[in-house]
Amino acid sequence: MKVIACFITFFLMTFGLNAGNNHKIPHQYIVEFSFTADAAMWRLQHQEAQLERLGEILNYYLVIFPESYHSSIETNILKESHSVISYSPNQVLRARGCKPNDPEFHKQWNMSYMGFEDAWCYDQNGISPLGDTIALGLIDFGFDYRCEDLNENIYRNYKEIPANNLDDDQNGYIDDYLGFNARSGVGDAHDTTENHGTNCLSLIGAKGNNNFQMTGANASVKVVLCSARDEAGLVRAYSYFIKMRTDYNNSGGQKGAYIVASSLSLGFDGDMPSEHVPLCAIYDKLGEVGILNVSAVTNENENIDTYGDVPSLCPSDFLIAVTNSDRNDHKAEAGYSQNNVDIAASGEEVLVIGRRGELQTSSGCSLSAPQVAGGIAYLNQFCERFNLLSKSDPSKAALLMKKFLFDGSKSISALREYTVTGKRFDIYGGFIEVNNYGALSIYKEADLVLWPNLVHEDEIKLDVHLTRYGNFTIKIYDLTGRLVQTTEHSIEPGSVSFLKLPTANFPYGLNFIQLIFDKTLITRQFIKI
Predict the structure, then answer these.
(1) Does an H or E element contain 61, and which?
(2) Where do the domains of the chain lie?
């Protein structure tokens, strides 16, 4: 059976960023079976192998083949076993090797707290499984993008010829080569004399593991810069992101940019959404094209429900409001709300890059939000199933990514009264959620697997493999060809491929199950005794 978890396939090919073949234990595999009974049946069919269940909660087993077996024979047996969900070689534990070699990383406690060290053990190339260059939109003022640790991760619009005063890519923006200057509405000139935007940029995408300075949350993301100073600038900047992602969606990646998230560490303290209707209205539009948006809440130690804070209070499912937490996972001096502040992130006394590339320590919600946004972009690298959804239904994918992020983050009792989730952001937990989502993939060939084939229980189990998500029909016939039962089903992103059909009304003896999907017709037989 095909190994179907999104990351498992990658893991089998590479065994992690720093692993080598010498860590694999010969002839040993960790195997997941569909059900306990399937493992027992597999053992009867392969008596030459040893089988040990690894605990009572999940159907994971240690399989040990004889030493005389070649690895190709072993993997072929596992691949062809329909009851095997997934498998991977058993490996010797080794010390973590995922800390970047940047000399000041030891000061970046925030990255360790939020699980980045664990997540960085895996792919960091900034490319989705479908070949999309992942981009993140950053709105701020003051970008010294010329800094050595930042310059490589700045998005460049190569369809545009810089500084020729023309709209070369015909996207409605002149000279938007290095992003867009939404302050003036013209060109890509960004102020390089201020720290704020540079601080945020470094936390998103300082180039990590280059033996220089520090690392950002996402060492290979391409950051689309937009400068803004007022609400009109924000609307211009967000509209630019929408245009770039829309062009990408509509052109199959030939135009625009694959912007999956945006980050904003600016806002309007003490204001209510009714005072900023144009700004609040745009977040749903961003979500429609597949952009999930992160904003920092105010640094005032106030309940924003009554104090006010925009955009944190903007009523959009595509907006994540982030507050600040410290080394003790307590809320720092920052805004809060059990109704409207979604999550906390570690942004108190953290290392950042300032103007002219100098390292400095700073604090605030402004530094919490960029790390969450960088994490969202990072999580887009691993799952083909998710990336297919981002093409077919971008808004659904954005909300699903938000769910991954919230479900995977760490519950903190001290944050329960200050945030909606009661959690502090954890990128590795989000990574696990993305990988779990990949437990169902889209198969290259349609198939229908039944168990048991000799039915003496109250139900029969079906594993349905479809070449795409959609509707299918299951029909049951008896030996004479009489139609016994027809049921309609659907596999959609987020659902599972396993079905259970009650057999009480099925006749005894030989029966047939048909899977009808588009022009595909698959028939399997089973015997009820």
Answers:
(1) strand 60-64
(2) 20-91, 105-123+133-437, 447-528
Q: What DSSP designation does 306 have?
A: H
Chain-centre distance of CA 355, in angstroms?
Answer: 31
Report yes or no: 326 and 307 within 8 Å, Cβ to Cβ. no
Classify strands 350-353 and 359-362 as parallel, antiparallel or unpaired. Answer: antiparallel
Q: Is cis: bond before 278, omega within 30 of 0?
A: no
CATH architecture group of domain 105-123+133-437: 3-Layer(aba) Sandwich (3.40)
First to last CA, the chain: 28
Compute the distance between CA of residue 186 and CA of residue 320 in angstroms, rounded to an integer.
29
Tens place of pLDDT per residue across the chain (529 aa): 333 344 433 333 333 333 334 467 889 999 998 887 788 889 888 988 998 889 877 789 999 999 889 888 999 999 988 889 888 899 876 544 488 999 999 999 999 999 999 899 886 789 998 999 999 999 999 899 899 999 999 999 999 999 999 999 999 999 999 999 999 899 999 988 888 999 999 999 999 999 999 999 999 999 999 999 999 999 999 999 999 999 999 999 999 999 999 999 999 999 999 999 999 999 999 999 999 999 999 999 999 999 999 999 999 999 999 999 999 999 999 999 999 999 999 999 999 999 889 999 999 999 999 999 999 999 999 888 899 999 999 999 999 999 999 999 999 999 999 999 999 999 999 998 998 787 555 566 788 888 777 777 688 888 888 877 678 999 999 988 899 999 998 876 545 677 888 888 899 999 999 999 887 899 999 899 8
CA-CA distances (angstroms) from residue 192 to 182, 188, 449? 15, 12, 61
**Which residues lie closer than 8 Å to 450 by C-beta, 6 or more apart?**
460, 461, 462, 463, 513, 524, 526
Q: Are 165 and 175 in contact (CB under 8 A)?
A: yes
Integer angstrom CA distances of residue 386 from 56, 176, 392: 30, 30, 10
**Treating both helix axes as pointing N-terminal to C-terminal, what angle do 6-14 and 384-392 enclose, rounded to 10 degrees?**
140
Q: Which strand (E) or helix (H) includes residue 87?
A: strand 84-91
The strand pairing partners of 511, in sequence order, are 478, 526
Specify the CATH architecture of the domain 20-91. Answer: 2-Layer Sandwich (3.30)
Nearest Cα neighbor of 370 from 114, 43, 24 is 114
E strands present in 354-481: 359-362, 410-411, 423-424, 447-451, 454-455, 459-465, 470-478
* Cα angle value 293/193/155 (rounded, 5°): 45
- For 500-526, the DSSP string reads EEE-TTSPSEEEEEEEEETTEEEEEEE
Secondary structure letter of residue 126 according to DSSP: S
Is 3.90.650.10 the CATH number for 447-528?
no
Distance from C-alpha of 64 to C-alpha of 87, rounded to nearest angstrom: 12
Strands of the sheet with 459-465, listed across from one edge: 447-451, 459-465, 498-502
